[in-house]
Amino acid sequence: MSRISDIETAILGLLYEKPQYGYQLEKSIESWGMRNWTQIGFSSIYYVLKKLEKKELVTSRLEKVEGKPSRKIFTITDLGRETMEEKLKELLSWNKKLTSPFDLGIAYLNYLEPQEVIECLENYIKSAEGRIKFLESSVKMQKELKAPYYVTALFSRPLEILKTEIEWVKQLIETIKKEENI
User: For the chain, what percent of residues have pLDDT higher than 70?
Assistant: First the structure.
C-alpha cells in the first residue's frame, strides 16, 4: 500500500468525489474552507497531482475546450480509492501528537519577566478569541447551509479545542500570579 501525505490525502479526497481539473480543485478547496484545516497552497496542487499520478493513484486525460487551451482532467484510480480508504481508517483511528510553536514559548517562558509572560498570554487569549469568533460563524454558516455533519465537524472540533485551551491559559496565568506573588 502506498503511503500518502496529508496534502495528498486532501487532493485525493476531492478526486474521490469526482474527476476534476486543477482550477476545479482550487475552487473545491476554497468552498470547503480547506485552508483552515489543511496546509495546502494553490501552487502545490499541480505538484501533488503529479506525485499522485506517478504513484498511479490518479490518471489524467486532456479535455479540449472550444476556444480555450486543453485542460487536464484528473481521475482517481482503484488503487487511489483503496489507498484513500486505508489512509482515512488510519487518520480516524489514531490520536497523533500535535505540535505547536506555543509549546516552545511555554518551555522557555522563565527567560521573561513574569509580567511580560502574563501580557503575552493575555494577547494569546485575545488572538484565540478572534479565531473562536471565526469558527463560531463558520459552524453557524455550515448549519444554515445544511452542510453534512462531517463538514460542520471540521469547524466545531477546533472550536471546542480552542475554548478548552483558553481556559488552560487562564489557569496558567493564575498559577504564574500565585507562584510569582503578583
Answer: 99
Q: Which fold has domain 6-93?
A: Arc Repressor Mutant, subunit A (1.10.10)
- Grid cell 496529508 in the structure block, residue: 6
Q: Which residues on adjacent β-strands are paired with residue 73?
A: 21, 61
What pLDDT digit, counting tens, does each position of 27-69 carry? 988 888 788 778 887 778 999 999 999 999 999 999 888 888 8
Task: For 149-167, give one letter per residue: b (16+ CB within 10 A) or e.
Answer: eeebebbbebbeeeeebbe
Helices marked H in the chain = 6-17, 22-32, 44-54, 78-93, 101-107, 114-144, 149-179
Between CA 152 and CA 140 the distance in angstroms is 9
DSSP code, position 96: P
CB 182 within 8 A of CB 114: yes
Q: What are phi and psi of 180, to 5 degrees?
A: -100, 5
Q: In what order do the strands lie in the sheet with 58-65?
A: 20-21, 68-76, 58-65
The whole-model pTM stands at 0.77
Residues in the chain: 182
Nearest-10 Cα torsion for 128, 133, 8, 90: 80
Question: Could you say which DSSP state residue 38 is in?
Answer: S
pLDDT higher than threshold 60 for residue 1: no
Which helix H or strand E contains 74, and what residues bound it?
strand 68-76
